[in-house]
Amino acid sequence: MIPRERGPECSFALSTFDTLQSCIRFHLWNINSHPEYEHLRKIRTRGCSPYNPIELAQGLNTYSEMGYKYVNKVVNTIERCNLQTYDSYELKRDQTGIGLLTASSS
Amino acid sequence: MGVMLSKYKYYNIWKGIMSPEIASLKILISMLIIAALVAVPSRSPYQIEENVDKTVDFTQCTSLPKEFREIQDLDQRKRVLIDTLLPLVLKENEEIKSLRAELLRIKKTSFYLTTKEMRFIEDLAGHYKVKGVITAPCSMSSLLGWTSCRRLLCSLRLLLSPDGERHALPSRATISLASAIQGVPV
């Protein structure tokens, strides 16, 4: 989707999603595949679970034009909102079933 | 068509793009969405109310509640946002983890890949835009930063079998394979 007031010199566009789930799915896929997130993926590969989100956030320097200012913003928000609390959260057991393709079921 | 390919090279591709658990990423995702939707105040910190058993119900929410925009209190807005998004992020996380588990299962249970297993890996590689998994070893080497796989892949390309049987690798390829595997911690 192209914003109505986008300047002629700009080339950005917006993505729209029918559902929140598809938005999140796209976001994860983007992080796992886009060349701009290679830095983040390398940080993740070097580490081990549980990962440190503050460390991972350093790989978001190309996510925004703000660069490392954006990284700092993300880090500050994670810390201020204590979002790491959610690292240990899980779906209820009977709800983790998935319907994705597997080699044994395909 | 039977296929004889090392599962190790696939494992390492995915090791590059998918770590065992991306639990912390859900925080990151939540953060990005929060940043997009809510101006984070510099005043009082938002304190999460801890769920005792740390489990959440998955409900397929297609959108935020209608009244979301009308919520004036920022802490409450964040609460609603996180309550809505967290189960969806966790669900997505579970799906990725299950795909990874399948890859690891393939790695553990079979030295050579069946056609189904190869198709599964190819589908995943396509989904994650990992180019040239089979046909362009150079690009994969570049992706992995793992130069030793080039020789291995060149050898393996020659080993595609026309039938459904699993075959032993010729000695030359076995040497290449062993060499590659040696440098790759399981």
- Could you tell me the mean pLDDT of chain A? 80
**Rg of chain A (CA only):** 17 Å
Helix content of chain A: 25-40%
Please provide the ordered H/E string of secondary-structure elements of chain A: HHHHE
Plain-language structure description:
The complex is a heterodimer of chains A (106) and B (186). Chain A is mostly helical. Chain A has helices spanning 20-33, 38-46, 53-57, 68-80; one strand at residues 90-91. The relative contact order of chain A is 0.07. Chain B is an all-alpha fold. Chain B has helices at 7-17, 23-37, 74-109, 115-127, 137-144, 149-157, 171-182, and one strand at residues 55-56. The model of chain B is unreliable at 1-23, 38-48 and 135-186 (pLDDT under 50). Strand 1 of chain A pairs parallel with strand 1 of chain B.
Topology:
The complex is a heterodimer of chains A (106) and B (186).
Chain A: H1 20-33, H2 38-46, H3 53-57, H4 68-80, E1 90-91
Chain B: H1 7-17, H2 23-37, E1 55-56, H3 74-109, H4 115-127, H5 137-144, H6 149-157, H7 171-182
Helix pairs in contact in B: 1-3, 2-3, 5-6, 6-7
